[in-house]
Amino acid sequence: MPMPHVSPVLSRRSCLGIGGASFALIPLASLLADKGGGHQAPSDSHVKRVRRVILLFMNGGPSHIDTFDPKPQLAKYDGQSYAGEKKVASGTRIAGELWKSEFRFNRHGESGLEISELFPALSQHADDLCVIRSMHTTDALHAPAILRMNTGRSRQGGASLGAWVDYGLGTLNENLPQFVVMLDHRGAPINGHANWGTAPLPVNAATVFESPGDGLPYREGMRNLQAIGEQRMRQLLKDLNELGQLREPASSHLTERMRAYELAWRMQSAMPDTVSFEEETQDTQQRYGLDRPATTEFGTRCLLARRLLERGVRFVQIYSGGGQQQHTWDAHTKNNERHRRFAGETDQPIAALLADLKQRGLWNETLVIWGGEFGRTPTREMNSKGRDHNPYGFTIWLAGGAVRGGHVVGATDEIGLEAVEAPCSVDDLHATILRLLGLDHETLKFYGDGGTTGLTGPEPCQVIQEVLA
User: How far is it, in rounded angstroms, from Cα 94 to Cα 379?
Assistant: First the structure.
C-alpha cells in the first residue's frame, strides 16, 4: 500500500528570518568548522562521546507511575487517603485517594527492565535504555518546568540545551542548521520559542518545523530567495552591513545577520533532499508508522530526525503534544485514556528510530533522550480519573552508544511520589548530557556584557556517573 505523503514544513519566518529574525546569528564555531571549531575542548578522554542528540519531549508531563516506574505497593494502598505533606502546584496539600496504575508492567530483555504495557514496541529495546527513576525539579507549573528542562532556568531569556550544544561543538555541516525543533501538529508548547532560545550565545537560532497547514513547504518558502538571485542577495546584504557598521561601529549584529542569511541561502541545496522521503523504502516508512493515522505525524518527525542527523544536523528536538491542554500528556482527567493515546502515537516511531540508528551506523555517536517537564502524583486529582503535577519524582530515559543500557538509576518512594534514592536534578541531567557530548558543564560558559552564564548553576550539580557506559 502506498505511503501517505506527509510533508515536513518550515514557517516562512524559519525560512527567511523576517519579522522576528528566525535566523538571528550564526555560530562562530561554524566559521571555524574547517579547523574543528567549537567553544570548548573535549572533556575526559576516557568517556565515550556522542556527536548528535535527539530529544523526545513529552509535553505536559507523562505519568512515570504508568510508564517506566512500576509501583506494586500502590495496589495495597489503593483507595486510601494520602497522609503526607507534599503540595501541588496550587500550593495546597496533595489530596485525593492513592490510585494504583491500571497498566501492567512486564520485564523485558536480558536486563529485566520493567516497562509498561503502553510501550510494546519500545520494550523490545529495553537493554538499550538507561532509565533515571529519580528525577526531580523545583517547578510544579508547566511554564517554568518546561523552561527549566529546556534551558536550565525557570524564567524566559536563557539559552536552550540545543543552543549550548551548538555553541560548544560547532557545525557538522555548514549547509544545514545545527539545531532543529519539530513541533507537534496540534500546536507549540507553553512559552513557545523561549523553549528553544539561543540568546545570548553567538549561534544561529533554532530552525523550527511547524505543523502542516501552518507554514509553507520548505522548497516553496525558498523560492522567494531564489527570485532575488544569489549575487543580488549578497550585494544587498553587504551594503546593509556596511551601512550598519558606519552607524554603529561597535556593533556586529548586521554582520552576524548577513552570515545567517548566507546560511539560509546555502540551505537551499541541502534541505529539499533532506526533507523528502522519496528514497525511503516502503518497509522503512511502515516501520516508522507512516501507514497508520495514529502514528503518521510523530513517525514522520522521527524519520526526518534520522535523515537530519545523517546529513550533519547536531541537535533535533521532537515534541509530542502541543497546543491546548487536552492535546498534551497533561492528564488531570482521563489519565489512562490520555496515556494510551499518546503512547500509541509515539511507541512504534521511537522503537523504529532506535533500530534505524543502529542499522545505519549512527547509534554509537547519537544520544536519544525521552521525558517531560515533571511526573504525575500517585493520587487521583479531586477523585477524578486524573493525576496532578508531580515535581518531586519522575522518570527520564536515555539511550545510545555512550549510555549504560538496560540499567535503572535511582528510585522514588514506594508510592512513586518523591525521589529518595540517588535523586537527580535537572542540572545533573544537563551536566550528564554535556559530558556524553565531551563537554564540561563547569567550563562551558559564555562571557558577555551581561556577565558569565552557563547551562547549569548557580547551585552545584554533578554528572550522573551511573548513566555513562
Answer: 8
Query: CA-CA distance, 66 to 63, in Å (whole number)?
Result: 5
245 and 254 Cβ atoms separated by less than 8 Å: yes
Asked whether 86 and 392 are in contact (CB, 8 A), the reply is: yes
**For 9-467, CATH number?**
3.40.720
Long-range pairs of 287-290 with CB within 8 A, sequence gap ≥ 24: 287/348, 287/352, 287/355, 287/356, 288/348, 288/349, 288/352, 288/353, 288/356, 289/348, 289/349, 289/352, 290/3, 290/4, 290/6
pTM here is 0.87
Q: Which of 20-29, 209-218, 396-405 has the lowest mean pLDDT?
A: 20-29
The CA distance from 444 to 152, in Å, is: 14
Tens digit of each residue's pLDDT (9 = 90 or more) over 434-469 = 999 999 999 999 998 778 999 999 999 999 999 999
148-170 pLDDT, tens digit per residue, is: 999 999 999 999 999 999 999 99
Question: Which amino acid is present at 91?
Answer: G
